[in-house]
Amino acid sequence: MQHALPSPRILLGPGPSTVSPRVLEATGRAPIGYLDPELFEQLDLIRGNLRILFGTANPFTIPLTGTGMAGMECCLSNLIEPGDRVVIGVNGFFGARMVEIARRLHAEVTQVDAEWGRPLEPEMFAGALRSGPRAKLVACVHAETSTGVETPIGPIGDLAHAHGALFLADTVTSLGGLPVDLDRSNVDVAYSATQKCVGAPPGLSPITVSDRALATVPSRVQPVTSWYYDWSLLRGYYDPPHGYHHTVPVNLYFGLGTALEEILKEGLDERYARHRTVSAQLVEGLLELGIEPLVAPESRLPTLTTVHIPPTVTDEAAVRRRLLIEYGIEIGGGLGPLKGRIWRIGTMGTAATSRNVVLLVAALRHILV
Predict the structure, then answer these.
(1) Other CB atoms closer than 10 Å to residue 335's CB: what's the count?
(2) CB atoms within 10 A of CB 327
(3) Is the pLDDT of residue 1 over 60?
(4) What is the gyration radius of the CA atoms in the chain, in angstroms?
(5) What is the mean pLDDT of residues 7-22?
(6) What is the pTM for the complete model shown?
(7) ω into residue 16 within 30 of 0, thus cis?
């Protein structure tokens, strides 16, 4: 590299986000075995705290090995058999990924589309559910990482259950940063990721599955296509008597356990309020520079803010490079049709501080002058 980058970085992109010193220290302790009794004591605490964070009583709530994409593929692979009809909302990059995976599983996919930058509306799902054969599954992204849009999931969950379908929600960029309240929203299955608002390193995907959704697996005509992510086999490891399934990343569990302790010590209401406050400060500071948000205030995530590239900027990637090289600040670019048109700025978990906002706005002011 031509430049020695500042370290540690200030991670204000779409993920990963900064981890606290306590979490970092926890991940560095000596590993223990994947069947060690101490590990299962830690896992019991982690699973209980994840239920609090998810807002669910689901017994099958686990920190799945793998990133958020592993959670997505795991959940869809267990729920979908060839020929199943699924209704998937797409208003960004990650909704489209769900469609791609569902099609690879040979589902009959009905795609419900909204403009990138706008939320999915319940009426869109209502029309799709009324037409065609009965749907087995309805799915959407709660917090779309590619656009910074929040889609309210409660009304969609109500519709799914009214039509006899299961409901799946992607909570990758919402869990730990804004309420998800899965049981109140009739969400049967959800997956997330540890490297965003939860404040732990990448490599784990918390998932939670209702008894109603679990009951569909034994009645499958064909086995789950993924052996590694088969819920029936995973339960044999996570639930007593804890038989061997795979070598789990024990040090990531140590970090996640500490991150969840920090979340609950701060308090959920206080944590969500902090994310809202810092997000509002960020938008205000960027507006002073003439940088406009992509998303309307009522649908804007408090965890990830998307903004239009200023018209005076001819090379947006060069601005991001300067932020990283000169200031050690990372922000993200756009994906799909928004590539080259927006920046994605994450204020998630430990990184959601007024200090970081002041630093970013000052750095952008200097670069854009």
Answers:
(1) 18
(2) 19
(3) no
(4) 21
(5) 96
(6) 0.96
(7) yes
